[in-house]
Amino acid sequence: MIGQKVRKAVNAVRVTDIHTHLYDPAFGDLLVWGVDELLTYHYLIAEYFRYSTTSYADFRALPKQAQADAIWKTLFVDHSPVSEACRGVLTALDLLGLPVKKRDLSFYRKWFAKQDVGKHIDRVFDLAGMRDCVMTNDPFDDLERPVWLKGYKADERFKPALRIDPVLLGWSSAVAKLIEWGYAVTRELTPKTLDEIRRFLREWAKRTKGLYVGVSLPPTFHAPDESDTGTILEQALLPVCEELNLPLALMIGVKRRVNPELTMAGDAVGTARIEPVEHLCAKFPKNKFMLTMLARENQQAACVAARKFRNLHLFGCWWFVNNPSTIREMTEQRVELLGLSFTPQHSDARVLDQVLYKWDHSRKVIGDVLARKYEDLAATGWAPTDKEIARDVEGLFGGNFRDFIMRGC
What we know:
This protein has one domain (2-28, 135-406): TIM Barrel (Alpha-Beta Barrel). It contains 18 helices and ten strands. It has helices at 2-12, 35-39, 42-48, 56-61, 64-77, 84-95, 105-113, 117-128, 145-150, 165-169, 171-180, 191-208, 228-244, 275-283, 299-308, 324-338, 354-379, 386-406; strands at residues 15-17, 130-134, 158-159, 162-163, 213-217, 248-252, 254-255, 268-269, 289-293, 312-314. Helix 8 (117-128) packs parallel to helix 17 and helix 15 (299-308) runs parallel beside helix 16 (324-338). The two termini are 39 Å apart.
């Protein structure tokens, strides 16, 4: 009985998807959707090359629809689509009411071609049970930057987050751009240059009104560190984040382009150290940090760190751990170590329609884990009420995040 109530609450809650790569429709073609985008997502491209002997260059030269055709034939027709990425495409089509059993790619294309983007966004948000989502907004993106400079009327469902990887991880290249944009910086991180970096970060944080600042980091990330990255992090970025009460979201563990010929699909995972996170949380107690780690091997240490630092918020099952078996394990471990003081999932979606399957699949797994935990609780004689269950679930699926970004340390 308790388990049924918990699953019902999980299925009913409206989600805040706290990390995506989606865009407000005002950004035009940067918001991607449709079956060809689903099929050419980099997860499926990597899986396609498990079977295909086509050269990487020849595949990249194909038009998107031809790439989608090749992936459909290889992963859905010539082999059963049992991987999570393939199953996700089918779940999305099914939730949209399309006849998956037809196995008719041309039919799906024609259906998407008839859709109005505004109405499609409404439909997807409704079917996914989402109240809003958080974008990833990069001032160094030549397609995105002009939209911010010109200004736009925001769709309130698409919340901004400022991404600063180029400044933090590639200062030797970023310096030329900042000079071009009118900042008095030099390659050497002088006091004046650090002050200008702070000005850049402050101006873009205020321009975007980002809910947090985010950065994706390699498994080799360490702190304290006297490199450009360490200096900018501790002397520019974190002071601005503290000043503006902005959390810094650390996404740690990605190894970029281990197979360069696969481009984005060629990124991989490495086991990181938790000590840099502990250092930052201890040295900067007035700063707020969000953390997700890419390697399964890092999840217990991340939980323990969150137990020790109230300014650290764990979130999501990122990328290579965003599979049902690992989501189940991570959610159970987090509940056992942290109670309900975390955010169990985000979609990381790059294609609008992906939120359909990512939230459908995740709700089922998280709901099952929570049902068992509440049944264990009830077995002690402590029977949670319907109101308490709804409160807890609302926290896990967005409320905890909103509380964290609003409060001070």
